[in-house]
Amino acid sequence: MAGHAASGAAGTGYRGLTGPLLLPAWAMIGIFLLLPVLLMTLYSFLTKEFRGGVDWTFSLAAYDRFLLSRGLFGDEPPVLEWTYITIFWRSIWQAGLATLICLIVGFPTAWFIATRPLHSRALWLFMITVPYWVNLLIRTVSLRFLLRDQGPLNDLLIGTGLLDSPLRIINTNLAVQLGLFYSYLPFMVLPIYAAVERYNFALSEAAADLYASRWTTLREIVLPVVRPGIIAGCILVFVPSLGAFLAPDLLGGAKTYMIGSLIEEQFKGSQGNWPFGAAVSVILMTLVLIVLMVYARARGRAEVR
Amino acid sequence: MQKILTSVALLALTAGMASAEGKLSIYNWFEYIPQEMLDKFAAEYDVEVTMDTFDSNEAMLAALKAGKMGQYDVAVPTDYMVAIMAGEGLLDTFSHDEIPNFANIDPKWIDVPFDPGRRHSIPYQWGTTSFSVNRDVYKGDINTLAILFDPPPELSGKINVLDSQGEVLALASLYLGIPQCSQDREQLKALNAMLLEAKQHWASFGSDTAKDVLVSGDAAAGMIFNGFSAKARAEGANVEYAYPKEGFVAWMDNVVLLKDAPNRANALNFMNFLLQPENAAALTNYAAYTSAVIGVDPFLDDAIKNSPENNPPASAPQATFVGVCDQATQELYDAIWTNLKK
Q1: Which tens digit of pLDDT belongs to each residue from B78-111?
Q2: For residue A54, how many other CB atoms are within 10 A of its CB?
Q3: Coil, helix or strand for A168?
Q4: Nearest-by-Cβ selection for B335 from A72, A253, A268
Q5: Do residues B234 and B167 both lie within one domain?
Q6: Same domain, B200 and B137
Q7: ipTM value for the complex
Q8: Which CATH number does the domain housing residue B298 bear?
Q9: Beta B74-75 vs B249-257: how paired, if at all?
Q10: Searching chain A, which residue's CA lies closest to the CA of residue B81?
Q11: How far is A146 from chain B (nearest CA, A)?
């Protein structure tokens, strides 16, 4: 697609203008993507200044702190530091689960919308997006109100006689999962919807004509065709969930650090450690990049096949 | 010389055109001073007053260090931040006779640990940090820090703790009877172990939500500032603010004279103005904490004067300020905090 556009431009004599015309795009990428990332990487290799800020001398202390533990007083022989690995693992597990739940709910939703008559699809999509006009913070706080021990949900459960004592949801991992699921569901629904909408339903009919069961049709025909949408949705849910700190803080009670809250603490508090915060960000970004690259490679191979 | 005189005259002229003798630029917490007081000062001293606000000590420090020095005359940092700012060389000094009303300050607030002898600061408002307990849930004695760190079964699992390292570790140290900023290994290990044990009884960490969780009933006990607890009570929660026998935390916001203040004389006038009992009382009536000025009582609203959150019983111990540790010690406390939240 991009190739066509480029050759088209060259053919009509815009070649000399390509550079200047691309300038805004390059400036955007440079100022809002490359510069911050480079700055962050640079900061992660500097010495921390007490009470926030950095001292401009090279240091590996931030990475050392992430990987090696020397005990509470820093004089024991170094061993592998599990604290931050545990925090990463917890966040990855949490984000993975949120992605799975979003997929289980999001796929049928997207399918449902894409199979409605053309005129009503816009309305369904509109209804999916309406709640997201409200700020994430306000939605998360509202969820807190709904889930609390004396909140509407528990009032309903107790009022109808289903339960005798309130269901403890707030300040648990379940509440965090609900928060992540609710925050990022549309990021799953919309890309899958876009993929399903382009799906040619004649293929399903053909499969049925050839005596394929519904399950076989879904697995062998539908899923491979809409897979790019599913993968895009999974990435769009997984990546922000990984760095989320609002849901763990407000719904989970902030009892344990997530990657997001760990990074936040390094920059926010008076005891802040900017290089360490930057280093954790760099490590997080590297992990995400590796996952994306593995996916891109696997996909590249699949396409060659 | 001629040139200087002309520019001075010009300056005077432009100042005259702004219809005020001079200016005063304040850097204060949000919603911490009534506009009428600023207007009153402006009228009394014929000064044009401007004010910017911040929402945390750290944000204020960052802004000043990032190049806002020389822009403001006074700021309103909390106790420990006064010491930090003085250490960073951001504060100017004054002598006590430059502020005639300095004598109105309650003598017990003059030799404070964060500014011994008050060379940079005057008191603004002060209060305490301890905890409150929902009396519908627990009716026993609450004046002990064991409520937080080794709670009775009725409260276990229903406790909210401020998400603030300084205050949590200060109260924990008081509970164990160890000094703040201790470097003693056995004491720090005990502190670390005690906190990990106590955490099993806690439902959540939250500062902004500290009042909200008490009012809603999500928490039956919670660490909280005295003024916040009074508001929870006003909103209908049956909570009692505790004055634990092991001690509790005091905090004090202070007006500091900033280095390179463009209007030093007006800044001192403003400090003097705030130390006038009538004005100090107006500030307290607005902020609902406690003044450190003698003679405010006749001007105070009854609700504030008599609130149990503002009046510790005679049996309560002296409140302690959060200590300001040196870098090496602070790193130990950071490690304990990370251990607690990992």
Answers
A1: 999 999 999 989 999 999 999 999 999 999 999 9
A2: 18
A3: coil
A4: A72
A5: yes
A6: yes
A7: 0.80
A8: 3.40.190.10
A9: antiparallel
A10: A270
A11: 12
